[in-house]
Structure formats: structure tokens, C-alpha cells
Specification:
With 338 residues, the protein is of the alpha+beta class. It has 7 helices and 13 strands. The protein folds into 2 domains: 159 residues, no CATH class; 150 residues, Oxidoreductase, molybdopterin-binding domain (Sulfite Oxidase, Chain A, domain 2). Strands 3, 6, 7, 10, 11 and 12 form a 6-stranded mixed beta sheet that branches. It has a 5-stranded mixed beta sheet with strand order 5-4-13-8-9. A two-stranded antiparallel sheet has the order 1-2. A hairpin with a 2-residue loop joins strand 1 and strand 2. The protein is elongated, with a radius of gyration of 24 Å. Bound molecules: protoporphyrin IX containing FE.
Length: 338
């Protein structure tokens, strides 16, 4: 018996499910890609992300008319968990869109973008459970000509909606970065927001006792702060904003010895750390202030990293330790697990 397609994109219920599963994976990977790629290239991931998001929205009516209706008729108790998963996805999409269009930023800590990310990541275990308990079992016959043409039509429709949105946003003078981040408080560092990793809190800063160690040796912060040069760079936060400042910096490369070591490990007073490839040390800077003024506590005083062309999580604040290590930077998790 053949399963008749019952919608304008000519997909069967099984094809709808497979497409939605693929879109979910693409959304998570492209979202992460927009974090992990260099700022110059992140627009590619962000564009794929937006188009996939709109494709998913276009698929919602087909999903509701297909397996959602069947599932509710069947009446399994776990349909409520599936419903929660669906509602989380839809809320995440709406929040992502509200952020992109700058219609709503969220409330305080619960910014629209941060809540969007939280819903995306907490959706992963639910997605795995949902696909494991309701396997779509794709078949080769699913790749028929009609379905392929419909899939192309769906991608085209997603791209058209995205393109229209971008034209409208550009016409309303919205200058977003390729990462999707909106500009805020450029050259006004005192107004720049301060963010830290999920469970980090800004430490108390006592300049007299702050111990900055480079390759195991304590160094004088005051002496370093006198050697700074000024550079302009964007800080692009994964919370969806970016800010350009004149940072007072010393290149990290200048402070390191010739000792062997594949990577440079930079650690914050909070325990948060990241590895940089040794060859990248020339593009990473120790920063002591902006525009001749010392850093504020929330911005990483007394010393933080400036890592141009990388997203915010690489701009480590409250730096206490810099060491050479043979661990490979590319083998670390994309973001810290602690
Ligand atoms: C399956 C879960 C997710 C869905 C359904 C989803 C969907 C969306 C949608 C529909 C938008 C609005 C796009 C636009 O209006 O152009 C958006 C924006 C965005 N999302 Fe997600 N997303 C998900 C997960 C993630 C994750 C895990 C990340 C990051 C790790 C992420 C990062 C972003 C960013 C940076 C934007 C702003 C893009 C821009 O303004 O150009 N998303 N998302």
C-alpha cells in the first residue's frame, strides 16, 4: 500500500518527520557554528540557521495535520511530553525571531537570545527521546522525484522568507553582525553589558593581592599595564550583542617564552579556562583597560583577554594564569563543561 501525500509540499507523514529531524540537527549545528566560526565567517552558519528555522516553521501545519493528530488519537501518555517538546521548539523559534528583529530583548537575565539558546539545548535530550520512541524509519522510496522537488521548494520558500526579512530589517536601518548580534554601547565601555559563563560569578578584585602568573611566574600587573598599546576590536557576545571598544592591550605572544608547548591555556579566577593554539597567541591580547581607563569589575578587572575575530566566550575575564601545554586546542570542548 502506498502512503498518499496529503499536503501542498507533497510530503508523506514519514517524510515530514524525517525532514523535521534533519532540520533540528541542522539548527543545532548551525547555531553552534555561528558561535565557533571566526567572526568573518560566522554569517554562513547564521544564514543557514535562519533559513532552516523558517523551513521548520513552514513544516508546522504539516506536522500538526500528520503525526500529531494521529498521536493524539492514539492517546499514549507520553504524547504530553512530545507536546512539551513541540511547544519548547516553537517558543525557541519565536524568541530567536524576536531577538533577530529587535522587537523584544527579553527581561533582565532572561534575554530573548539566552532563553532561545536554553530551549535549543534542553531540546536535544527531548529530541533524542522523541526520535528513539517514534522512529521515522526513512526508506529509499522516500527519495522520489516529487519529494525532492518539494524539499527544494521548501528550502526556496525558507530562503525567500529569510531574504524578505533581511531586506525589511536593512530598510529599518538595523545593523546586525554576520553572527546576528546587535550593536550596543560602542566606544561607551561604561554602558557595555557584562556577561559571564553560566555558573561563574564576578570575583572580588583586590589589586594589591591579585596574582597573575605567566608560565608559573608572578608578574606585576602595574608594570604590564604601562606597556599597553591601543587597539579597536569588536566584542561579540553569544547573548546576541556586540560592542566595539578601544582596548588597552599587550600582545600575549610578547609575554611568552620560547619554551615548547602546542597550546596556551588561559585561566580565570573563576576556574573557567580555554586553550588557544600557540600560533594564535599573536592574535590574542592581555587587556588592562579601555580608552585609558581601567576595566570595570564586571568587564574582567584587573586583566582580561581580548581575542579579536572570536566570540565572547574566548574573551576570558579576571585572568590569573597563563601556561603552555601540549594539549591540542582543537581537541577541547566547544565551550567549557564547568
Ligand atoms: C532546534 C533549536 C533551534 C531552533 C528551532 C532555532 C531557530 C531560530 C530561529 C527561527 C531564529 C530567527 C532567525 C531569523 O529570524 O532570521 C534563530 C535565531 C538565532 N539562533 Fe536559533 N534555533 C535553535 C537553536 C539555536 C542554538 C543551539 C543556537 C546557538 C548555539 C542558536 C543561535 C541563534 C542565533 C545566533 C540567532 C540569531 C541569528 C540572526 O539574527 O541572524 N539557535 N534561531
Amino acid at each position: 500500500m502506498s502512503v498518499q501525500p496529503s499536503n501542498r509540499f507533497a510530503f508523506t507523514a514519514r517524510q515530514v518527520n524525517v525532514i523535521l529531524e534533519i532540520l533540528f540537527v541542522v539548527l543545532i549545528l548551525s547555531g553552534l557554528g555561528s558561535w565557533l566560526l571566526a567572526l568573518d565567517n560566522a554569517w554562513i552558519a547564521a544564514t543557514i540557521h535562519s533559513i532552516a528555522g523558517f523551513m521548520l516553521v513552514l513544516m508546522v501545519p504539516l506536522k500538526l495535520r500528520g503525526s500529531v493528530m494521529t498521536g493524539f488519537k492514539r492517546g499514549r501518555l507520553t504524547r504530553w511530553l512530545s507536546t512539551i517538546f513541540g511547544l519548547m521548539l516553537l517558543s525557541g523559534i519565536v524568541l530567536g525571531w524576536l531577538h533577530t528583529t529587535a522587537i523584544w530583548w527579553g527581561i533582565g537575565y532572561w534575554s530573548a537570545m539566552w532563553t532561545h539558546l536554553l530551549l535549543g539545548f534542553t531540546g536535544i535530550p527531548l529530541f533524542l527521546w522523541h526520535t528513539a520512541t517514534r522512529p521515522s524509519k526513512p526508506k529509499l522510496v522516500d527519495l522520489d522525484r516529487r519529494a525532492l522537488l518539494s524539499a527544494a521548494g521548501l528550502a526556496g520558500a525558507g530562503a525567500v522568507v529569510y531574504g524578505t526579512q533581511e531586506v525589511v530589517l536593512a530598510a529599518t536601518d538595523q545593523k546586525r553582525a554576520g553572527t546576528g548580534s546587535h550593536e550596543i554601547a560602542s566606544f561607551e565601555p561604561e554602558k557595555m553589558p557584562s556577561m559571564q559563563w553560566i555558573n561563574d560569578t564576578a570575583p572580588r578584585v583586590d589589586l594589591d593581592t591579585w596574582d597573575l602568573r605567566i608560565e608559573g611566574e608572578s608578574v606585576e600587573i602595574d608594570a604590564l599595564a604601562e606597556q599597553t598599546e591601543r587597539m579597536v576590536a569588536w566584542l561579540d557576545c553569544t547573548d546576541g550583542w556586540r560592542s566595539q571598544q578601544r582596548w588597552d592591550v599587550v600582545p600575549l605572544d610578547r609575554l611568552l617564552s620560547d619554551r615548547p608547548g602546542r597550546s596556551v591555556k588561559v585561566t580565570s579566577a573563576t576556574g573557567y579556562s580555554r586553550l588557544f593554539d600557540r600560533s594564535d597567541a599573536k592574535n590574542v591580547y592581555l587587556c588592562f583597560g579601555y580608552d585609558g581607563k581601567p576595566l570595570q569589575r564586571g568587564h574582567g578587572a584587573p586583566v582580561r583577554l581580548v581575542a579579536p575575530n572570536r566570540r565572547g566566550p574566548w574573551w576570558i575575564k579576571w585572568v590569573v594564569d597563563i601556561e603552555l601545554t601540549d594539549r591540542r586546542a582543537w581537541l577541547q570542548l566547544p565551550f567549557p563543561a564547568t
